[in-house]
Amino acid sequence: MNITKTEYGHIQEQTIYQYRLKNDKGLEVAILNYGCIVTEIMMPDKQGQHENIVLGLSSLEEYQVNAPYFGAVVGRVAGRIKGASFQLDDKTYTLDQNDANNHLHGGNEGFSHKVWEAKTVEEKDCVAVVFSYVSKDGEAGYPGNLQLKVTYSLTNENELKIDYNGQSDKKTILNPTNHTYFNLSGNSKRDVLSHTLQMESDQFLELDHESLPTGKKLHVTGTPFDFRNGRKLQDGVASTHEQNQLAGNGYDHPFLLQDDCNFTISLYDEESGREVKIKTDQPSVVLYTANHLSDEYSFYGHPSRKYLGVCLETQGLPDAIHHPEFPSIILNKGERYHTSTVYAFKGR
Ligand code: FUC
């Protein structure tokens, strides 16, 4: 196993590097110390052909503009916060308004747009990069100096683990995730609508017309939101379900996950034989089928388009700070925050 580090670009006098983690089975994951962005995951298909299974851009400049969070760690709080403000102990905090009246994925310059410190770790059966960033009190409107560490570890079992660790010197809110768009066809050859998703989730959150949770949990039974026995993503596009249509014909919904620490999510592409399995300690996963992806990017010569990728964003529930019935995303002063998500890559 090894890690290589190459120069990727510059932001003022800071050098941005691409770290390439490789295991002995030929799996490769490339990550930037800008936004902790996963730019590439190379894995074999059933013929042994190694191709990239995530949407990634080809230059730092492209990532710096407001690209839709390709591969990035987003936060402090992933998803939307209604009205771009919240209250904590009777104090009102006003956040960046970067999605109509609401706050999205940490604001104008969230974690996805920061330069992170990086440290590499090479062990016999695991290679890792530990990214650190200190988010200052008041950044994007959030309280507390927040120290954050995001660790990407790759093993010879073809597992990539992302650990998120944090600590703040004031009470604050924290709910980061990773915003990788998977496309298991390899090098973005096809869209993801023929991918099969299987997940142990029997409820999802109803969204309003601004894509904010209404607070209502809906049962998946009898709907295109029922992935318990596996279902192709195209079912949500063809669907007349009001919630699929409101999301822009597809999915952009938080699903509640069963509280066990097994691989509860599987994304599979029959044609390539590739599969990604996900396990997390988070209470939900946001399934986003790139319903709003425009044609302004290009991947391997193919212009981007709707449904070219699928995000599986493991996290606490969106807008939890306005829904006391959701699991809390409050981080108390001095409290240690830790969550992790494991992605297992399987060729067939
Ligand atoms: C996802 C969605 C949003 C948004 C963004 C780029 O997380 O929930 O609707 O479009 O990504």
Automatic annotation (TrEMBL):
MF annotations from Gene Ontology: aldose 1-epimerase activity; carbohydrate binding
Metabolic or biological pathway, per its Swiss-Prot or TrEMBL entry: Carbohydrate metabolism; hexose metabolism
GO BP annotations listed: galactose catabolic process via UDP-galactose, Leloir pathway; glucose metabolic process
CC terms in the record's Gene Ontology section: cytoplasm
Segments forming a coiled coil: none
PROSITE patterns xref list: ALDOSE_1_EPIMERASE (PS00545)
E.C. designation(s): 5.1.3.3
Swiss-Prot/TrEMBL catalytic activity: alpha-D-glucose = beta-D-glucose
Keywords tagged on the record: Carbohydrate metabolism, Isomerase
Domain of life according to the entry: Bacteria
Residues holding beta-D-galactose: 179-181, 252
Assigned protein family: Belongs to the aldose epimerase family.
Protein name: Aldose 1-epimerase
